[in-house]
């Protein structure tokens, strides 16, 4: 009788545990990260009797956590990739919207500026036209400044997001370390049994951490998990967490680096991190934000340098040679904060048409030599002070220690520093600086085109050049200083050259002109400074033509050239392409993440219908076990009554 009672009692206890587990599953059906559990039953040790082994009931063997480590690892890995792409696409979309917007983008401002320059060419003496050009020029400058401020603001926002992300990572690392400790203690207290709810809690923390940065985990024998980031940096070792922090970059204090600190010390690991929100932010900064601001500066420098050069080749309404329209740009050169030597570096932009949008790294070898690396494609030059590379030159002074570095940014400040120098509309130099004319007494059919100059540094308001034809020598005698004596000669044979022959004089702006026809002996032509050329529009036409001239490098390798607007269009296209690519990949990765989560949910998710069926089944088994106890009680009472009789 006692055997039946024992068996019934074991059934009651076993199915009570089963009911408890089922109830626990139902109660946590909506709990994030919960893995369903089930009670595993086993037979108790049978009893040997005279007729053989007799069963002695049931016992609870284990409460099993349904979990698939492979699927969970896939979920974490895909979560990291999805977060990285979502962060990248979100920030890239902001830049894309900014640059492509027809109201706040640069292209409309460039077009309005060149339209105003063309208006000056159409009516060079009109003050309203000149006022309009002054206004449109300032508007273009303001647009460059506004766009550059947006890039700078995004740099600051990215720094803030990096700081916030590292703070969250530190919090998660501390939580994982505490849960690790709790798991180790719980396993020890239970004699080796896993604490399922604590394991679920750790899994939730790991998934959240993977959304911030790519991680890998290594299980330990005591039940704790070590967590690694980057190139093997141990973020969590058992119950000991490391920390991340942001600090001003050694190369550029305006950009934050990420430092890793553990018991061995602190070091920067920015270039070693990938995945998650951190990876998305760093990739966005490297692929879009920095190159975009550089290219915007490149366009500003190109417009400033080319317009300045051409404007200085003209004459304004006051009869003066043109001056610079825009303030010359300066290069940004940043000494690394870890430099030990006393070397300094300054830079000069020599040719805007040879500039690229890349940054450069200048590194000292300690023996007085330097290596210059173009970071866009890692091309290197052995560099000495004064060498010209990609349109700029560096002046180096002081002694450098081996490994000292300088970050060279030829175009980063271009948009910020673009400043309109001219504030008087009369000072727009629309006229050509020199004009040619035949002498009144010429008897031949010779003619000369208006000279085109190319060197503003040798232009002079005192220019007065006379070309006198010598028929016997088939040449022009050229008097460049007005003393009546030929300083040079130009060969011209009317028999073969009457269709037109081009000449270029050295100095005086290097004027280029063409002589045609058949001049008579002694016919003269003069080239003089164009004082009073109020209605002359030659230089304004040349400035307007710059809109269509390929003055900018098309890419870093120098393959091809492009106009200002084409260069900007390339920037918009490049950002748009990368944004679209990131958005497509983000959607695909989100779909993959959803599939992995569904696969994992099929293993560890709570199905309420299944749990309801289990609840009924275990309830019936519990009631049947109670009935066994009732039968045992009845049999026991019958035996007692029989003994009393």
From TrEMBL:
Top-level taxonomic group: Bacteria
One Pfam short name: FlgK_D1
Compartment(s): Bacterial flagellum; Secreted
Residues covered by the Flagellar hook-associated protein 1 D2-like domain: 335-410
Keywords: Bacterial flagellum, Cell projection, Cilium, Flagellum, Secreted
Sequence ranges assigned to domain Flagellar hook-associated protein FlgK helical in this UniProt record: 93-326
Limits of the Flagellar basal-body/hook protein C-terminal domain: 605-641
InterPro entries: Flag_bb_rod_N, Flg_bb/hook_C_dom, FlgK, FlgK_D2-like, FlgK_helical
Single GO biological process annotation from the record: bacterial-type flagellum assembly
UniProt entry tagged with the keyword Hydrolase: no
A molecular-function term among this protein's GO annotations: structural molecule activity
GO cellular-component term (any): bacterial-type flagellum hook
Domain annotation Flagellar basal body rod protein N-terminal: ranges: 5-34
UniProt-listed NCBIfam families: flgK_ends (TIGR02492)
Sequence similarity: Belongs to the flagella basal body rod proteins family.
Protein name according to UniProt: Flagellar hook-associated protein 1
Name of the gene encoding the protein in the UniProt record: flgK
């Amino acid at each position: 009788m006692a055997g039946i009672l024992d068996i019934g009692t074991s059934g009651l206890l076993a199915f009570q545990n089963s009911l408890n587990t089922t109830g626990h599953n139902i109660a946590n059906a909506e709990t994030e990260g919960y893995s369903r559990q089930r009670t595993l039953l086993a037979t108790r040790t049978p009893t040997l009797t005279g007729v053989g082994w007799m069963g002695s009931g049931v016992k609870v063997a284990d409460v099993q956590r349904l979990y698939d480590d492979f699927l969970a690892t896939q979920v974490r890995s895909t979560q990291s990739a999805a977060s990285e792409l979502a962060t990248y696409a979100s920030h890239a979309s902001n830049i894309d919207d900014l640059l492509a917007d027809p109201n706040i983008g640069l292209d409309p401002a460039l077009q309005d500026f060149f339209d105003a320059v063309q208006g000056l060419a159409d009516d060079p003496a009109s003050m309203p036209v000149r006022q309009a050009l002054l206004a449109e020029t300032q508007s273009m400058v303001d647009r460059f400044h506004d766009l550059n401020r947006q890039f700078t603001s995004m740099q600051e926002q990215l720094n803030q997001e990096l700081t916030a992300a590292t703070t969250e990572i530190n919090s998660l690392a501390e939580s994982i370390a505490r849960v690790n400790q709790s798991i180790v203690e719980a396993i020890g207290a239970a004699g080796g049994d896993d604490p399922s709810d604590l394991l679920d809690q750790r899994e939730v923390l790991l998934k959240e951490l993977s959304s911030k940065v790519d991680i890998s985990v290594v299980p330990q024998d005591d039940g704790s998990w070590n967590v690694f980031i980057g190139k093997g940096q141990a973020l969590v070792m058992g119950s000991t967490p490391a920390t991340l922090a942001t600090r001003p970059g050694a190369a550029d204090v305006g950009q934050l680096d990420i430092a890793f600190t553990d018991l061995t010390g602190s070091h920067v690991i920015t270039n070693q991190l990938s995945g998650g929100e951190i990876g998305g932010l760093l990739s966005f900064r490297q692929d879009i934000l920095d190159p975009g601001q550089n290219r915007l500066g490149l366009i500003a420098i190109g417009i400033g340098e080319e317009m300045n050069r051409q404007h200085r080749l003209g004459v304004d309404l006051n009869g003066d040679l043109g001056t610079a329209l825009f303030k010359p740009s300066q290069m940004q050169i940043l000494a690394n904060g870890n430099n030990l030597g006393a070397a300094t570096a300054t830079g000069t932009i020599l040719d805007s048409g040879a500039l690229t949008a890349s940054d450069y790294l200048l590194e000292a070898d300690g023996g007085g030599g330097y290596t210059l690396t173009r970071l866009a494609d890692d091309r290197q030059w052995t560099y000495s002070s004064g060498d010209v590379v990609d349109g700029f030159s560096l002046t180096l002074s002081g002694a450098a220690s081996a490994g000292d570095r300088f970050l060279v940014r030829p175009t980063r400040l271009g948009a910020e520093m673009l400043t309109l120098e001219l504030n008087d509309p009369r000072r727009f130099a629309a006229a050509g600086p020199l004009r040619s004319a035949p002498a009144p007494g010429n008897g031949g059919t010779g003619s000369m085109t208006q000279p085109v100059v190319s060197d503003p540094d040798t232009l002079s308001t005192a220019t007065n050049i006379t070309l006198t034809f010598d028929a016997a020598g088939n040449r022009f005698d050229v008097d460049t200083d007005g003393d009546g004596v030929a300083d040079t000669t130009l060969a011209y044979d009317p028999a073969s050259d009457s269709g037109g022959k081009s000449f270029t004089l050295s100095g005086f702006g290097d004027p280029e002109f063409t002589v045609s026809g058949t001049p008579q002996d002694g016919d003269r032509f003069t080239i003089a400074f164009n004082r009073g050329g109020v209605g002359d529009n030659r230089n304004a036409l040349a400035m307007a033509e710059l809109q269509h001239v390929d003055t900018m490098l098309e890419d870093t390798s120098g393959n091809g050239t492009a106009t200002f607007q084409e260069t900007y269009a390339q920037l918009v296209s490049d950002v748009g392409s990368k944004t679209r690519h990131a958005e497509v990949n983000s959607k695909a990765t989100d779909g993959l993440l959803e599939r992995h989560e569904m696969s994992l949910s099929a293993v560890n998710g709570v199905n309420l219908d299944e749990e309801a069926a289990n609840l009924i089944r275990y309830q019936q088994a519990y009631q049947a076990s109670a009935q066994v106890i009732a039968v045992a009680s009845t049999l026991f009472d019958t035996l007692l009554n029989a003994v009393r009789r």
